[in-house]
Every structure is written in structure tokens, then in C-alpha cells.
Amino acid sequence: MFQHLLVVLDPNQEEQKALSRALHLARLQPARLTLFLSIYDFAYEMTTMLSGEEREQMRQSLVADREQWIQGCLEKFDVSQHRIEICVQWHHRPFEAIIRKAIESDCDLIVKGTRKHDTLHSVIFTPTDWHLLRKAPCPVLLVKDRDWPQHGSVLAAVNAGSDSEVHQTLNERITKAAGYISKKLNSHLHLVNCYPGAPAAIAVEIPEFDTHQYQVSVREHHELALAEVARKVDVEFTGLHLREGMPDNEIPKVAKELDAELVVLGTIGRTGITAALLGNTAEHVIEQLDCDLLAIKPEGFRSPLAKE
Length: 308
Prior knowledge:
36% of the residues are buried. This protein folds into 2 domains: 1-145, Rossmann fold, CATH 3.40.50; 148-308, Rossmann fold (3-Layer(aba) Sandwich). The protein contains 11 helices and 12 strands. It has helices at residues 17-28, 42-45, 52-74, 94-104, 127-135, 165-185, 200-205, 211-232, 247-258, 272-278, 281-286, and strands at residues 4-8, 32-39, 83-90, 109-113, 115-116, 123-124, 140-143, 153-158, 188-195, 239-244, 262-266, 292-296. A 10-stranded mixed beta sheet has the order 3-2-1-4-7-12-11-8-9-10, sandwiched between helices. Helix 4 (94-104) packs parallel to helix 5 (127-135). Strand 5 (115-116) and strand 6 form a beta hairpin. Residues 273-278 have low confidence and may be disordered.
């Protein structure tokens, strides 16, 4: 499923979690790895005492130094069986450099590590992370500190109750991706779907409204829809979980209960004012997860950075 991985390295981190995870994936199935690093120093662009040619030579020197650093990172691993390319680019917007490289190289998956706050022991998500979730042309795997053990748990989160064709096809892509990784890891695969509760204001404004019957009907609808999502794919699920509440809250709870090593969900990839107002479920969920997150794009998604 993932045959060409774009692995985003972080020179500010001692441990390259993305590289470790990408090599793990490459051991599970044959895959080509492109190790990518975007660097930039504004001071070099502002050095007026140097000619354009001299500035270019300095940039190339820095690029070569970073390439040597990546080679040093690889020495910690046995990479004799893997096809690996190294790419260091001078670019002032890391997310744009990553996305353009993914497009140019036709990558199947972007793998990027997350950063941990030194004092709060929580994960910091950078603007680059958010841009990748919204604009990357392919799935994005954001890696935390947890390992991927055999016989663990993988959780796929879907929007089963939606009539939208976009969501229905996205559900199928999510379950197939989760099923594929779960099979490779010999993991237990779980499926979760959330549904909203009855608006409290309805009971006040319409006294004759039967909130209990409404809840029963909504639950039954989502229960059938969840079973249908599971039936449509040739994947064996250990458990189907139906939760009342917002996905932002319930998905992390289920992941914690299962001690999942990976959550797979979809992101529609809203950008601009729509994203600012509505946000994306993936972005709200990931901050509360204590495991890796694989964000899947809908079928036909086109990155806003892709050239016509």
C-alpha cells in the first residue's frame, strides 16, 4: 500500500522517530524511502557583502553538511536491505518544500515525527504539522514516542452516519488502510463511530419532543451504518465501538481504553476561512492522542500546491 515514503527529518531532535517508524514500515513490506530535510537561514540571504555566487556556495556548503548529518543518522540502523534517497533543500517554508517533494516524487505516505515539550511533557504540533494535515497530497503519519508492538491495537475512526459520498468513500479508504497495517502488525483492529446527542434546547422549546426515543433512533441508525461500513471491506474487526458524543472527545477515549498504538482517521483538508471556523477532526483529535495518527485524504483530493 505504501511503496514510497517521504520521511521528514528534524535536526533539532536527537531521536529521529520518523526514520525509525519508516524503517519499521519498510521491514513490513518493500518500500522506497526518501529522507527529506528543508533548511533555511535568513542571515545568509541578507549578507550584502557577498556576491550572489558566494551566497550560493555557502548554501551548497550547508546543504552538503546536512547531507552528511543524515548519513550519520543512518549509521544507527541496518539499512542494507532498503532503497534510500537523501534530499536536502534550501527553502524558507518547510511545509511547502515537503509537499512539493511529495508531489514531484509521487510519494504514497509522508512520515513526520512530533515534538515533545521539554517541561510540560506534552506534544507540540507545529504549523508545519497542520499544513501537512490539510494540504499534503497523500496520507500523513504523525509519529509519537510509542512503539508498534505485535498483537497490539489499531483503531480506525469513521463517520458512518453521513450520507455524503465523500465521507462514504473516505470511510472505506480509512478501514482499508487500518486493516492493511493491522494485518502487517498482527494487531487487533477496532472501528469507532461517534454520533451526536439530542440538543438540550429542543426539550425546552418543544416540551412534547421525546428526547429518549430520538436518542434510540439516532443510535440505531448509526449502529446499522457502522455495521455496514465494516461489512463493505474485506477486513476482520476485533470490535465495533459506537459512542455518543463529539469525535474530538470520544476517539481519544477509545484509543486510551484499547491502549492503541495507531489511530487512523480521515481529514477533508479544509483550508482558509473554512478551516479557521470549522477546523478538522484530525487536528482536534491528535492533540489528545498518546499514539501515532495516520490521516487519510479523500479520493480525488488535490493539494492546493499542486500545479495544474
